[in-house]
């Protein structure tokens, strides 16, 4: 009896350990594997009037909301143009890379070799962008980057075949640095997730902030996916800087903003940050806690220009919510493909890259030009303060920072 | 580090520990009594949180939403146990595959229903204030979580030691065959235990909503932590997950203060050390040689 019992408990225990290991492994791999292939037109492989667009984005994990927005924006542009880009019917092949460069490479191979797509849109993650870069260069296929923000895609890893329509970490970090130094305070504590993008954003901020007479007195790097910022918030309370500058996105950003208020720092030390802190993705769930934050945004649904008004109206009609910057990036990815094909009169990569360098378009965020030196957009940023209007927190633009760009090579401060 | 700051960190660690306790308690009871490794347990946490989010945004108020969503997860647990889990008792591999498959299906269903946008549940109005502790404030809601966790520990202790159900459950952990032989309807007990465990996870989800938000992938995050808690605490009693969860909560928070770059490592090191010294976890029953 005794033996049977211990054996029973032992086997139970082995199962716990095995299960823990299994779930850890699977979580690390990115969880679910859902792959959707969307093909509105069931046309044959290489008919000259069909444009095959391969999309590699991250539909599972932290980046899922971004992917959804980018796809929504892209689809909206198609809807507005009879499902055509550059006069050709569009067929979209969608692949989920699960934020994993290895998975992305496999999906990339599939899209290029078996699906034979004409052009690629993606990815979300910078690590994936680096992984795809050499293949794209070798296969000579144009990649329109609607999100991955790593600086080096415009510097050492720059490729004639990769064009970013969104923004780089450099731009996101430096946009409001001068404004903060001149208008809010000279000593700053920065907080950003401990991964390459977090460090790149803070480097850019620090360089621009200190060039304008400010001083970063402390840099905090919590790990990505931090539940609790109590530790960091108490450090900030003890350091007592003039201002806090933060780059926290997704669920981390929401928790950070809420806890900043919960721990009594809101109203005591001004909170500033990157465009994420002025975007609906964070503002809606964070609610009142987000009031008063000053950020450098690239887009708000309330920007006054013709393109944006139409964009917002039709976006709301189709998806029943307000667009965010990522939806705009998806919309512009479609727009830039449309313009490039029309201008080049061809879908051949070598014709497209001639017109993509220096191409200009009217985005819902304002005029955008792809800088031929960096293959990265030159665009306006806006100083926005989150205010409460009709019970809802919205970013209110007070000032335009025109033609924000990034240097052609890494500056000494960024190395 | 000043004393008040240390105090705030400890409170923070306790609040997280209590959340982990709520989910790990269910996990360990289901595992201890039914010998089922329920990998779908994190999903109950997620669904509890999402249901509460929906109810709160329909202006039902936090407290009613809390009760209803705990009820919903309990019913969901009941249905899943009756329809699926009871078919795989004693088959460990099948259980792992079934419950793991369930997490995929349920979390994809959640994605389909609630979308991928990150949501949070607002802190209930009566608790939406902060208490000043030296140079910083501490949110009252976290103290509330600590209190609920403490109350839950007391309730579980009473259930385990003072009630017939507790006696049956304790007996079931030790010798299931004998309990059946005594004429107790083990099937019904199992269904009840499973639903109760699911309800506890749902409770954790609702209470955790204002703290950590509700988002795709939350179920996986929470499952991993609670499996660590169960591993550290050991099976068979409420004490295991309680002490394990508080230990993990505190180590996680204080690890971040003292070793900011590798706080996750601190938790795993703790787990390894405990497994080396006490291979069944802190309160796991010792195996006779």
TrEMBL record, chain B:
The organism of origin for this protein: Kyrpidia spormannii
The name this protein goes by in its record: Branched-chain amino acid ABC transporter permease
Signal peptide annotation: none
Transmembrane segment boundaries: 6-29, 36-56, 62-84, 96-114, 140-159, 179-202, 222-250, 257-277
GO CC annotations, alphabetized: plasma membrane
Bilayer topology: Multi-pass membrane protein
Keyword Transmembrane helix: yes
UniProt GO molecular function: transmembrane transporter activity
Major location category of this protein: membrane
Pfam families for this protein: BPD_transp_2
GO biological process, alphabetically ordered: amino acid transport
Keyword match Calcium: no
Subcellular localization(s) per the UniProt record: Cell membrane
Entry's family note: Belongs to the binding-protein-dependent transport system permease family. LivHM subfamily.
UniProtKB keywords: Amino-acid transport, Cell membrane, Membrane, Transmembrane, Transmembrane helix, Transport
